[in-house]
């Protein structure tokens, strides 16, 4: 984890390349969020958290220019993101959607190579720089030994790392990921989160939608907390993650204690069966001889 204090983190995250201003966002003629205003701190590891259906993925898709706000706007470098060319945006930010489907019969190296699409044109065909970007992404995600395998043959954890490799090959300073740990077992979840932390440590802005609050607090510097389509609060995990917030946003009574490994906030649900609503008593186990 970073050794920077909260004050030092704030100082390094004052600039925001991505900003949402008074945005009303929805899809299929359904409004999900209204009048959203929020900044994505520059070079931060930001986690968007909240209950199911609260608008987390909708916000991320708007930031990625997949959705156009009905009102308001998303700004990239101070200008409406819609005013930038599609390839220009694709060279600045990349999105890993919640569900990604690989074309049938495609091999790992070919899928990762699709991350280079923003750099291809009639005047710029495949180059040694593209080849290096793909190879570097395969190595960074430890999928280089899978490069000739069919994507359909891979395990869930391997497949997710391949998709991250494609995103990495895009070589954008901003990486957006929508629930990247979904469908992964706990070991692969933490493996992926460590990989994202490595990218952040190398200077990338990482923005991810997460369900696991303890993972969000352990890995993110900055939280955006949502409920019912609105932003409840933003800030560092130490600032915003309190028992009152957990109960208000998630309807869960919990203690917030320091993680024994990292010292970051750790959410421990209280036992509703306990008379005091606290932690359940632990019954000693006695071996029978």
From TrEMBL:
Gene3D superfamilies, per the entry: P-loop containing nucleotide triphosphate hydrolases
Gene Ontology molecular function: ATP binding; ATP hydrolysis activity
All copies of domain ABC transporter, residue ranges: 18-253
Short name of any one Pfam family annotated for the protein: ABC_tran
Keywords noted in UniProt: ATP-binding, Cell membrane, Ion transport, Iron, Iron transport, Membrane, Nucleotide-binding, Transport
Keyword ATP-binding part of the UniProt annotation: yes
GO CC aspect terms: plasma membrane
GO biological process terms, semicolon-separated: iron ion transport
Domain of life: Bacteria
Membrane topology classification: Peripheral membrane protein
Record has Iron-sulfur as a keyword: no
Location of this chain's protein in the cell: Cell membrane
PANTHER family referenced in this protein's UniProt entry, alphabetically: FE(3+) DICITRATE TRANSPORT ATP-BINDING PROTEIN FECE-RELATED, IRON(3+)-HYDROXAMATE IMPORT ATP-BINDING PROTEIN FHUC
UniProt name for this protein: Iron ABC transport system ATP-binding protein
Gene (name only): fiuA1
